[in-house]
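In response to reviewer comment 3 from the previous cycle, which asked for concrete evidence that the modeling workflow produces usable outputs, we include below a single protein chain processed end to end. The sequence was submitted unchanged, and the resulting structure tokens are shown without manual editing.
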Amino acid sequence: MASFHALTWTAGATYQLPSGQMVYVKGSRGYRPGGINATAPVGSGLGQYIPETDTSVEIGFKGDFHIGDARARINIAAYHDSYNNIQKNISATGAAGGVPVSITSNAATAVIQGVEVETVFQPIEPLTIAINYDYTDGHFTGHDPRAGLVSDPCNPRSAAPVIGFCPANRLAYAPKTQVGVNADYKLPLDQSVGTVTVGAHYYWVSSYAMGDVSVQNPENTQPGYGLLDLTATWAQVMGKPIDLSFFMTNVTNELYRSVSSDLLQNSSTGTWALAWSPPRMFGFGLKYRFGAGAGG
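The workflow returned the following structure tokens.
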């Protein structure tokens, strides 16, 4: 039997500047309860794991601006998370002949901090440009010594499963840098022709670990890649209740892994299952509106 409790909270404050922009600060604390490991080796001290908590502080700015006839919006946020007693599934040496067993342990602590920037810029009426930038510094800062009772969990890959958790591993699915650029342009056509909009959307992400064993299995790190998508829509074609659309995703046919289930260190035989990204795809759409409001 075990019982757990914690106080969670959220607090924040905002201030509107005389020019109309806003600054804010926000803090919060999250909580996940602990539990019991029924398969933990007797006397290992791993029969129970305690709650994990995350304390987050964020400050930011939101504002609209006019530069001549051009309009712009910018949102900036900086944050810092202290992530403690992180619960991870690890391997431990079992009582039956030393066969590894999988348990949950408070394997590590971590710091996750970074900056997010969102901007929208309209230099001329038909053109809208949006740029998003994210920088994340996330890393483990330590580990529970009970999680590595038998051997050093940061050893390079070996035939034996990893025992414990290695704090030198990268945080899973936490790339340092992400950039997105969207551009949409509405063609200056007569209203009787309809509304034609074309767009290009580019996203780039730096390398990231696809699991919690990047030290032991460095192959389970996805290199950085970029994706380009294109769109076009023609609404109210020649004044008729008809809309046409076109899309093309992954224009450059970029090949990257979307899912990786790396069990090389958690299985007696070792398996590694991968799912690859969709290839370049394109398609067309046709929409017809019925009813009295079809021409609106």
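The longest strand covers residues 100-124. We consider this sufficient to address the reviewer's concern, and the full set will be provided in the supplementary archive.
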